[in-house]
Records
---
Amino acid sequence: DTGVSQDPRHKITKRGQNVTFRCDPISEHNRLYWYRQTLGQGPEFLTYFQNEAQLEKSRLLSDRFSAERPKGSFSTLEIQRTEQGDSAMYLCASSSTGTGPYGYTFGSGTRLTVV
Amino acid sequence: GQQVMQIPQYQHVQEGEDFTTYCNSSTTLSNIQWYKQRPGGHPVFLIQLVKSGEVKKQKRLTFQFGEAKKNSSLHITATQTTDVGTYFCAGTRGSTLGRLYFGRGTQLTVWP
């Protein structure tokens, strides 16, 4: 296992279209997080899962955004009716809940451009 | 909006000079983590501090967590060109492994 994988790396879509991103976390990590990052800003929390349970969802996340982790392994993030303001880097991260000074391991991200 | 404030936003230094970035939260944090993001890359975990007043070192990097667990700093001694990137602090509230609140980051440029 070489880390957190995200697919696709880049996505260009027309406004109003739906998009779906996939994240494959480190296999032994039971927590999975989605963040969004725009230029010059720190990562902004969207949601996170422990196994298949979605434990928290940001108030900033409109109902156009939905995330799933059906079997507690990979996760998908779907954005419906995309808007230009959705253009950003979408980062996935995973972590363990075991003991130790574990941080997040981030994937390389999916860069979304809405035109 | 950002729950964790970080300053400065930008720092330009000549190679060999020291660098410090500061992080402040209005609420007590369970832990503070530091990440480095190279240009075009993704954040990479550097370290986690949990205890009040904790100080940790990694070679030329020194990390501190304030006594009140509301602030933190990262100090780099004798910067090198390989230190270039954006340094983020991030804290959790409640659980030590839950949602991370990221600062805006300090973008470090090192001139050779």
Note: Chain A touches chain B at residues 31, 33, 35, 40-45, 48, 55-56, 91, 95-97, 101-109 (CB under 8 Å).
---
Amino acid sequence: DTAVSQTPKYLVTQMGNDKSIKCEQNLGHDTMYWYKQDSKKFLKIMFSYNNKELIINETVPNRFSPKSPDKAHLNLHINSLELGDSAVYFCASSQDSAGEWEKLFFGSGTQLSVL
Amino acid sequence: AQKVTQAQTEISVVEKEDVTLDCVYETRDTTYYLFWYKQPPSGELVFLIRRNSFDEQNEISGRYSWNFQKSTSSFNFTITASQVVDSAVYFCALSNRRGGKLIFGQGTELSVKP
């Protein structure tokens, strides 16, 4: 069983389109995140949610909107895609308890290519 | 400001060599956590270790060992007797609070040749 699963694994689309990436975790974790990895492998947090509540929003353009229907899911919707959005997007989760919150489990990533 | 620096962009070794990946961090917090993650060619990120700022004991796990030194703000990672399967990008990261905001270094790409 995959602990943190993201779909799709690859996403190729045209500029200006709207797309979504889905993420689900079956670990019973309270907190979920989206990280972005650029072409130089640099990883940076975008959002985090704790029990469906937004905790971190790291100066991400409004075109990116996370949605957490329940604590096991955190989807990422992107409007009006731009070339610069091309990257690998990682979903992650962690348990919100002492000694565990900082141990993140990552999904396998979604490679987004905007043409 | 918090920052993590991995000065080595790429390292190439021959199998069975020992290799050390450097990590230097900056933070003004007294409580913080340090991590190493591995990203193999398949792309997923794999948690290797977490260390809190109050525990400077070095740790060994099989062929892996970590050297945490607060005096030099370093958290170096050594692989002993490297193997081809160790080839990956290794990331050092820092966090100072709940919420999981990890500040990642630039990553070190390790290539282990047979």
Note: The two ends of chain B are 41 Å apart (CA to CA).
